[in-house]
Specification:
The chain is an alpha+beta fold. Helix content is 35%, strand content 18%. It contains five helices and four strands. The protein has a four-stranded antiparallel beta sheet with strand order 2-3-1-4, with helices on one face. Helix 1 crosses helix 2.
Length: 164
């Protein structure tokens, strides 16, 4: 990773500034043209250094105090397709596959659902259940009791192998 790329990651690891033109502000703070910043970010994404740039809202502050991670036991051969289907629902903020921990934890598909009440989240869970149908052998929901610190990409250290 180049020195400039490390500087970009360092500038972004605390989040984008809450201004009308956040990339322009970051570029100005680094002393580089905004287009150069965007080009380097695209290159880091293409190479896998950065997986994605996304919003990480505080759902509690937005009034979404009933937050449930729905968990599903589906066939391993179908989990990717079913996860993509469920992840495309407008009320699912993210879905992903995780390994089972048998015999106690049979679930391999996870889908996060937010709502203002547990009844609302439960209705959304039932919609997922209806879509999965017989593909779901079991399911449960784990409700959040507090918000965890959300962080993105972090640099470990600046090493001697950096170059520009």
């Amino acid at each position: 990773m180049s020195v400039t790329d490390r500087d970009i990651v360092s500038a972004l690891q605390g989040g984008l500034p809450l201004v009308a033109a956040p990339y322009a502000a970051v570029a100005a703070s680094l002393g580089v043209p905004e287009q150069d910043l965007l080009t380097r970010l695209e290159a880091m994404q293409a190479s896998g250094v950065i997986r994605r740039i996304a919003v990480a809202p505080n759902h509690f502050k937005l009034g979404m105090t009933a937050n449930g991670m729905t968990v599903w036991d589906v066939e391993d051969a179908r989990v990717a397709d079913l996860g993509a289907l469920i992840g495309a629902l407008p009320f699912v903020t993210h879905s992903y596959e995780r390994p089972r921990a048998l015999p106690d934890w049979p679930y391999n598909l996870f889908a996060m659902v937010h709502g203002t009440t547990r009844d609302e989240v439960e209705e959304k869970r039932q919609q997922i259940a209806a879509i999965l149908g017989a593909a779901s052998r079991a399911n449960d929901i784990l409700y959040s009791t507090r918000i965890l610190k959300k962080t993105g990409l972090r640099l470990r250290r600046k090493g001697p192998s950096c170059s520009d």
